[in-house]
């Protein structure tokens, strides 16, 4: 059974802020890959979104805005980091919509959007779209320099995993202002159906730097090559630990500890080894597991119902895991917007559709009745 919290209603007054900041990474392609198919995109003509409903704080929420603005340095502000580009813009918009809809204090949420410096879409245009879709949203936009990681990226099992912007999560401590001490990182193919404040409140015990749902029943060894496991110098990284698989699409990150531990450089070191020795196959995930495996704060599984997009090669349909759900994640090849548009949706894709604000020119917008009809069948 899936537990969906009561949606917050009425109108929000959040304040827009914009910051272009250097050192940051996913390229915007000439073609948009949708569930394995490629389609030319005329950005100005195609990517239009309805204005989201406004949401305002509940009566018990603290007033954090000063002079109508949220401060990134305020530790009480819920800080969320996401990448933003043409290929996943529709997913990013839906994810933001879902966070605001279910938040008890939506006015106290600040989004940090990371865009690529090689974007074929002007940064100002991306900013305009976010601002027009969420007129009172508090957010900042940062520019990521792809040159930082281009030489470190190795080929993967799926081309999308080689996109430089996928590696932005490894550089958040450098990209965001130094005063930002903590952030929630979310992939663009997620929907939040619970109060984000609950995830923000998760404690990272001891010296742990990141928190994420762990899946210890998964075969951890398969994420690394025979080359890796046959070299004691490599496999020794897990000595004395009990590493479990975790998905980096949903993480609570302590950026103070991250900076103190110089974890970005440690991740880069493993990427350099990968270029020489080929010790894994899956993009940006294995370096995280090599650095943090066995030392992750285990968050309840309800906060990452991942794998809804199928596996990395086939866009196959999957069901929700048993138990309550707070966040749905379409990790894998299949994305809900692509499958819905192709009229080949999976049942779980109808859970994503109510948050979709995309407005195609030649067809009506997705409506809630589709999901209700599916439920009745």
From TrEMBL:
Record keywords: Glycoprotein, Glycosyltransferase, Membrane, Signal, Signal-anchor, Transferase, Transmembrane, Transmembrane helix
Main location class: membrane
EC number: 2.4.1.-
GO molecular function terms listed in the Swiss-Prot or TrEMBL record: glycosyltransferase activity
Residues spanning the signal sequence: 1-24
Recorded family membership: Belongs to the glycosyltransferase 8 family.
InterPro entries: Glyco_trans_8 (IPR002495), Glycosyltrans_8_dom-fam (IPR050748), Nucleotide-diphossugar_trans (IPR029044)
Pathway recorded for this protein: Glycan metabolism; pectin biosynthesis
Compartment list: Endomembrane system
Gene3D superfamilies: Spore Coat Polysaccharide Biosynthesis Protein SpsA, Chain A
Recorded topology in the membrane: Single-pass type II membrane protein
Record gene name: GATL10_0
Native species: Quercus suber (Cork oak)
Listed GO CC annotations: Golgi apparatus
Coiled coil ranges: none
Protein origin, superkingdom: Eukaryota
Identification of the protein by name: Hexosyltransferase
